[in-house]
Amino acid sequence: MKNIDRRQWLKSVSLAGTAAILLPTQSFSIDSPARRIKGDKVRLTSNENPYGPSKAVRKAIIDAFDITCRYPSINLRPLVDAIAEKEGVTKEHVVVTGGSTEGLKAAGMTYGLEGGEIVAADPTFQAMLRYAENVGAYVHRVPLNDKMEHDLDAMAARVTSKTGLIFICNPNNPTGTLLDKIKLQNFCNSFEKRTMIFSDEAYYDYITDPDYPSMVKLVKEGKNVIVSKTFSKVYGLAGIRIGYLIARPDIAQRLKKNIMAMTNVPAIAAASAALNDDEFYKFSISKNMEGKNAIYKTLDELNLDYIRSHTNFVFFKSGRHIEALAKDMEKEGVLIGRPFPPLYQWARISTGTTEEVAAFCSAIKRVYS
């Protein structure tokens, strides 16, 4: 993205409405086989952006083949500079990872070793938590509140002298909920001197409030906060594995020691091109809004409750066990999200292409008929 003013653009979106910002889909069309698995089944399971990568990113990947004989370190430097400029930090604040998942796991190892404790919501994204448990951490899983949000008060009550890290996924996966920005900032400011705060912002680009702050703001203030971001979602690069962490330089250096897979030359080229592709960025957000609205409309017709999402998926109350629903939907040619215990009566559906969302809407109507 060429330093796109996200705040100004989102304000124009909210004023103009979704229809006014939709871009021609033919510029980003892709062949059906790239969007499907298991024959002709529609995959809406993993919150991917099926419109990516953009044409500009594909060209950058192909061009990068000429230098894949080289190690990625030299090519990484310009990307680190670009991310630093985008986030308003120095290059010493940036840790590039093999997808944001590697960053989460590195933090889980860094702050969970030798019996360290982690406090997190439940359910939420599990990559860090399971990895931390594998290296000896104890994870306090705190149930969501009745709004399906992180229960910050209950999480606060679990913080002790043994707490190495508090994990916050915001917007949350799988619920799609977004924390009140004032409460979130107050919470982070209250606890960052006692422990590390990790803010997973994989879905930050889909937040429609133009004034909603990234917790990078607190990193800039020198707080004990780590923020993770990814190229997997809005940029459509889930399969190439590249993301990054933003943290105070001394924290970033500590995290780098636990980065193992790192990234690669084609991924670096892809991410660099993606940051400059304003058109595709806007297109992705617009199509996501369109997809969510279509899903909302169908769920309303079926009288199924759902949470209005700040992500690229919708979490809805199925009224039946998710495993049974998933089997019925697969028979109709649509694959939906896995179980998220203990919320077995809820289902997560990703926003795919216009065609894929239409297939979901038709299939779920048949299943509930």
Descriptive report:
It contains 13 helices and 13 strands. The chain has 2 domains: about 5-50 and about 275-365, Aspartate Aminotransferase, domain 1; about 55-275, 3-Layer(aba) Sandwich (Aspartate Aminotransferase, domain 2), CATH 3.40.640.10. The chain is globular, with a radius of gyration of 20 Å. The termini are far apart. Mean pLDDT is about 90; it is low at about 20-25 and about 30-35. Strands 3-9-8-7-6-4-5 form a 7-stranded mixed sheet, sandwiched between helices. Strands 1-2-12 form a 3-stranded mixed sheet. Strands 10-11-13 form a 3-stranded antiparallel sheet, covered by helices on one side. It is α/β, with parallel strands linked by helices and about 375 residues long.
Q: How many domain regions?
A: 2
Unreliable spans are: 19-27, 29-37
Identify the CATH architecture of the largest domain: 3-Layer(aba) Sandwich
Rg result: 20 Å
Strand order of the largest sheet: 3-9-8-7-6-4-5
- For the secondary structure, the number of strands is 13
Quick gist of this model?
This protein has 369 residues and is α/β, with parallel strands linked by helices.
Features of this protein?
single chain; 369 residues; alpha/beta; Aspartate Aminotransferase, domain 1; Aspartate Aminotransferase, domain 2; 2 domains; seven-stranded mixed sheet; three-stranded mixed sheet; 13 helices
Secondary-structure topology with pairs:
Elements: H1 6-16, E1 36-37, E2 41-43, H2 55-64, H3 73-87, E3 94-97, H4 99-112, E4 117-122, H5 127-134, E5 138-143, H6 152-157, E6 163-169, H7 181-191, E7 196-200, H8 216-220, E8 225-230, E9 243-247, H9 249-256, H10 265-275, H11 278-301, E10 306-307, E11 313-317, H12 322-331, E12 334-335, E13 346-350, H13 354-367
Parallel strand pairs: 2-12, 4-5, 4-6, 6-7, 7-8
Antiparallel strand pairs: 1-2, 3-9, 8-9, 10-11, 11-13
